[in-house]
Design goal:
CATH superfamily of the largest domain: Alpha-D-Glucose-1,6-Bisphosphate, subunit A, domain 3
Helix content: 25-40%
Strand order of the largest sheet: 1-5-4-2-3-6
């Protein structure tokens, strides 16, 4: 079915994701997990109320209780399922997608994600079969966990120095948590688009799109802010801007936060996605830690964190994962950790990332390819003299450059990321591989 993806359910509302589908998903989720209660949260997206009605009817018709925690971010839902010791949770959201989309994210107990490999396919089949057994109807219980969630976040705020900051919540779900952590601090905060609005009237709720950061950068320049942060619609991704208006790469943020963790936990394991710069591993080891690559995608990283007992993980796409947050990703927690670091070191973000700009990267470049597997096999043959990894697509390392080509889960695309020790080599190798991929 079209909206069932590798990590969640996401599609156009109401064409692909609607009340009827939500009802079947509610019944399928309870049937699959064999549970008696489900935490349900939802963001402010259009259609959220209707999907909530369908979903909760399905859950209760299948014999489970709904624990309704109301409008919230994805990280707050992860907190809720842990705080309430519930056996599962569903978040109604399409994350950072445009306003026309809506969907669902699933977790088991302790916010363990359910992905295509661990249950989404089975839930999809149950929805498709639509053959559910009758059960004694469950009930809807409303629970407000906001105060507990805010107390939890504030525990991690250290001594923040005075700093001018601009925060852009994209009319998504992070505003209330952001208010809770900054209002009593020494930060001077300019707040952009804190009011939840499913029309997303100011810009797309996707900070990975550079145009979504334009208003943040303009306001930073106007108020002479030292730091800017942009959150996505459901609050699991954060992007940061320096006082000069530069967008900071996600792998640099991974490196900085890793340093803060390793000050206290020498020898700890840090995970980084395989698109990240060589600098991550170099610096983690310099700080006295261990570094390991991970596949791209939140469910893979969360699983690897648990299995390998990693203390922190970061993705190039602005997802950062914390053991304190139940091995899940949280934008507001990332903000807290970064401001802790800037305060402790008494330096600006631009100063901290300057030593990390050692290599030259291509950024992620997409190419339309019909037979993705065949193309990756050919690349492996051509570049067989390098060190080859099949962790996620194909990554091949040489002494002075590396590249990763991985397939999109949902589109006929190959995604290229490449890094080299010189700009000239990066551009040359980038063009060489793109020419081959696109021929």
């Amino acid at each position: 079915m079209e909206p069932f993806k590798a990590y969640d359910i996401r599609g156009l509302y109401p064409k692909q994701v609607n009340k009827e589908l939500a009802y079947k998903i509610g019944r399928a989720f309870v049937t699959f997990l064999k549970i008696k209660s489900v935490v349900v949260g939802r963001d402010c997206r259009l259609g959220g109320d209707e999907l909530y009605d369908g979903l909760t009817s399905g859950i209760t018709d299948q014999g489970a209780d709904v624990i309704d925690i109301g409008l919230c971010s994805s990280p707050k839902t992860y907190f809720g399922v842990n705080f309430l010791k519930a056996p599962g949770a569903i978040m109604i959201t399409a994350s950072h997608n445009p306003k026309e989309y809506n969907g669902f994210k699933f977790t088991r107990e302790k916010a363990i994600p359910i992905s295509g490999d661990t249950g989404i396919k089975e839930i999809e089949q149950l929805v498709y079969d639509d053959n559910f057994k009758d059960a004694k109807k469950g009930k809807i219980i409303k629970k407000d966990v906001e105060n507990e969630y805010h107390k939890f976040l504030k525990k991690f705020v250290k001594d923040w120095r005075p700093m001018k900051v601009v925060i852009d919540c994209a009319n998504g779900m992070v505003g209330s948590a952001a208010n809770a952590v900054v209002d009593d601090s020494d930060l001077t905060v300019t707040k952009l688009f804190f009011k939840p609005d499913g029309h997303f009237p100011n810009h797309d709720p996707n900070p990975l799109k550079a145009s979504s950061l334009d208003k943040l950068r303009e306001r930073m320049k106007k108020v002479k802010a030292e730091l800017g942060v942009a959150f996505d619609g459901d609050g699991d991704r954060a992007f940061f801007i320096t006082e000069g208006g530069d967008i900071v790469e996600g792998d640099f943020i991974t490196t900085l936060i890793a340093e803060e963790y390793l000050e206290e936990k020498k020898g700890g394991l840090i995970l980084y996605d395989l698109r990240s710069s060589w600098i991550v591993k170099e610096k983690v080891e310099e700080f006295g830690g261990k570094a390991a690559m991970s596949r791209v995608g939140h469910s893979f990283i969360k699983d690897q964190m648990r299995k390998q007992k990693a203390i922190f993980a970061g993705e190039l796409s602005g997802h950062f994962y914390f053991t304190e947050c139940f091995n899940t990703d949280s934008a507001i927690f990332t903000f807290i950790k970064l401001v802790n670091l800037l305060s402790m070191k008494n330096k600006k973000l631009s100063e901290l990332i300057k030593p990390l700009k050692k290599y030259f990267t291509s950024g992620e470049i997409n190419s339309e390819v019909e037979d993705k597997e065949a193309k990756m096999k050919e690349l492996a043959k051509i570049y067989k003299n390098g060190s080859i990894s099949h962790l996620d697509g194909i990554r091949i390392d040489f002494d002075d450059w590396w590249f990763n080509v991985r397939p999109s889960n949902t589109e006929p695309l190959l995604r290229l990321n490449l890094e080299a020790k010189s700009k000239k080599m990066m551009e040359s190798k980038r063009d060489e591989i793109l020419k081959f991929i696109r021929k």
